[in-house]
């Protein structure tokens, strides 16, 4: 059984602030692609949050992990979706 513990940290506030600034830009771009029928989606928020979560996962793995093979695998598979 895995157990996760998260501690709030002041340095992470900047990450959240940055994400809040980037989110509307990404959402606008995804909406442009939905309108142009480049991607099929009901709402721009869905691919926006999915993209942000993939980036968060990759960044966390690159900072806190030491498994370069796993990081490379995540990066490669992420590009097939995004």
Number of helical elements: 3
Task: Please report the total strand number as a whole number.
Answer: 0
Fraction of residues in β-strands = under 5%
Helicity level: over 70%
Biggest sheet, in brief?
none
Structure explained in plain terms:
With 82 residues, this protein is mainly α. The protein contains 3 helices and no strands. The protein has helices at residues 10-35, 45-64, 68-81. The longest helix has 26 residues, at 10-35. 5% of the residues are buried.
SSE order and pairing:
Elements: H1 10-35, H2 45-64, H3 68-81
Helix pairs in contact: 1-2, 2-3
Summarize the structure.
With 82 residues, the protein is mainly alpha-helical.
Provide key terms for this protein.
82 residues; mainly alpha
């Amino acid at each position: 059984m895995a157990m996760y513990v998260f501690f709030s940290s002041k340095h992470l506030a900047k990450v959240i602030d940055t994400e809040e600034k980037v989110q509307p830009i990404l959402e606008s771009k995804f909406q442009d692609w939905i309108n142009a029928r480049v991607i099929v989606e009901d709402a721009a928020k869905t691919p926006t949050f999915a993209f942000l979560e993939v980036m968060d996962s990759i960044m966390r793995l690159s900072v806190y992990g030491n498994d370069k093979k796993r990081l490379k695998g995540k990066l490669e598979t992420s590009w097939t979706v995004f």
